[in-house]
Write a structure and sequence with these properties.
By secondary structure, this protein is an alpha+beta fold. The chain contains 21 helices and seven strands. The protein has helices at residues 2-38, 44-53, 59-67, 116-129, 136-148, 155-164, 168-183, 189-203, 205-216, 221-271, 278-299, 307-329, 338-360, 386-408, 410-420, 422-427, 432-454, 466-479, 484-505, 507-524, 535-538, and strands at residues 71-74, 80-86, 89-93, 100-105, 109-111, 376-379, 382-385.
Amino acid sequence: MSRAFKAVFVALVLMFSAMAQQAFAQEDLKAQINALATAKLPDLPKIVQTLAATGDPKVVPVLEALGEGDLYFRKSDNAVFLTKAAGANLSIIDPVSGETVGEEAKGALTKIRVNNNLRRAIRSALGGLTLLSPDRNVRLQAADAVLKAPSAENLGLLDAAIAKEADAVVKARMETARSVSVLTSDLATDQKKAAIETIRDKIGGRDAIGILMAAAGKVDPAVKADIDSAIASIESNLAFWDLGQNVWYGMSLGSVLLLAAIGLAITFGVMGIINMAHGEMVMIGAYSTFVVQDVIRDHYPGLFDWSLAIALPVAFLVTGAVGLIIERGVIRFLYGRPLETLLATWGISLILQQLIRTIFGPTNQEVGNPSWMAGSFPLGGLTITYNRMWIVLFSLSVFFALLFLMKRSAYGLQMRAVTQNRRMASSMGIRTPWVDALTFALGSGIAGIAGVALSQIDNVSPNLGQSYIIDSFMVVVFGGVGNLWGTLVGALSLGILNKFLEPTVGAVLGKILVLVLIILFIQKRPRGLFALKGRAIEA
């Protein structure tokens, strides 16, 4: 019995001792939290770091409330409380136990002030406290928080978290966050050099440059050379990817110019018509997309992701019909009179713009992106947006489909015959007036589907076509009138050239320089890059 009694006695002593230690720990934690009430604002980050160093999860809601500006202290005794609205008063909650201990008038409490420096310290502390959370997403967010607000105080927590982490992605993020915190610590030079290499290789980009430049003024001279070398390496890598990004932007612009110009290349090449209303065909195609999406939103919302697929044939048929009416009603009476044709088509463009303003109004119309065209994805150091990527692929598809039509169909053969020698084609029995009409309708239809694509990246307004008509003519003249390959090369060349000139000389001066370069080029090659062959053309 004596042995059993001793065992019970020892167990009771240990239990009461543990309870006493827990009570003392809670009182100590409460005292540290209450210190937030009397400390000056510049001293608060140190208190936050002290609280975080306890590793107690009870600190998390306190720091979250402090960061959100919702932590108060009672004026009578400087006790800190979490609060909750309770009518005209505030319920006060013990920050350690989490229990509601009463109510106080709002005037009896004072909010603890915070600033950006304190918020950064809080983010870093919260990141350290949640690094061991069982929730993967919480751990990942914690690592990101430490990465954005590095502190040497977090190294112990990071080392413990990295040792226990099984998820490869989260572990890599924690190691990166640790490297950034190492630069702010007094650890050995070798560890700091290894941290610099990790920052260079795993973070990279402008974020890494910012981190390294911030650390450059605080580290030992022995590490300064490594930081400068890492920054130079990152800048060299960025310059390479910036070059690639500009090429991609140029290809994207070139694909837009290709869509806008390819129909013009056909009509200009076959008929010799300077169609100033071509931009309005693009505009009508964009408005056709708006009407299709408007009908789908009202009646068939489940089909919205298919709206562009539905809009393509609609825009092609509508603009093709408009083009056929224009050719049969006006242009066929003006063949051989280029100045009158130019003026007539310019007048038609003004009529179409005003008609659209009357029907839809002068303001921009909303055309949405289907889900498969929204967002972007990284490719190396490039950022590829889905809408631009699909437009590039779509423009190339239109190009090759039209090339197949021109080279492998009877209509394409007739069109090429009329382009090369109209009189000979007519003498061979080809009905050149109908070839002209169908060619103008085809060019207008292609402009319409260009409008569908442009509606995804530009404002749909009555002036949409005016933004592309001049560039379209430059593409056609530069590439070679009536030559599809010339149009492709010309569009991509001008697009890339524009994107390389814009950052250095500006968009307006860049376009002027491109125009001057094309004029100088035409002086040497009047027929463009790829001149068509034929007796009538060479005559």
